[in-house]
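User: Hi! I'm working on a homework problem where we have to compare a predicted structure to a textbook description. Could you give me the structure for the chain below?
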Amino acid sequence: MKSIKKTLSMYLPFSKAGIKIELAYKAQLVMWIAISFVEVFFVVFLYQAVYRNSADGMNSIINGFSFYDMILYMLTSFFYSFVMGAGDTSYDIYTDIREGTIANTLTKPVSYRLRHLFTYFGVLVFDWLVVVLPFLTIIYGVFIGLGILKVTATGFIINILLFIVFSILSGFINNAVSYFVGLMVFYTDHLFGLNMARNAIQGFLGGQMLPLAYMGKLGVIFSFTPFAFMNSIPVLVIMGKMEIMQSLLYILIALLWILLIEVANHFIFKRALQKLAVQGG
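Assistant: Happy to help. Predicted structure tokens:
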């Protein structure tokens, strides 16, 4: 217990620093929200055209999604993916390497990994409270109030609790992947291409561009990748499109991915430090 308190007292200041960084760039947050609404506006018209030209028109069910299901999915996905992508650890590592500040950081009596993890979760909690909570409350309140989303009070509470659990797990997975990409900078000395590849893969395999249900058997396979936990699975959970037992299975899979990626990061970091020492020599 004392060890946990000591760890928290040592690393919580990094979380507070992450929150201060977000507060310092409030205009960026406002601009993103405005741009997201424009993107959502065009997506609504795109899927309206798709459903209108389907067999049953606007009443069509495509791969388990009605037109309003798709709109709710895209709205949730836009806000959720933004929060998951905030606080980019890979860029922080890149800055440490390029500016040489990593040498000073490594001499401090703190874990380099935990420092980035706590900083990220500071940003994540702040954006979750400022963006996800208010906007999704409004969106789901409207959909439930209009009878578009039919769910019992008990069922929706369970969905929310599972959504929170998956959001925490998503944060760990997203940060672990971002940390992995950052470690690759030790070997490539560049981040732009790595992040472009990561964003493309994450957007596609995570169901941000298109629900994985639209991809048939490939979508089922992709749902077991770590990228699906950064968007698709949490979104489906809060929409009530996932059974409880299936959700529990995905929680176990998420925990396994966190373990595997963190173990890989640990060994890559140790080798990266040796490479850094050679470059410094």
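For your comparison, note the following. Residues 277-281 have pLDDT under 50 and may be disordered. The CA atoms of residues 181 and 195 lie 7 Å apart. Good luck with the assignment!
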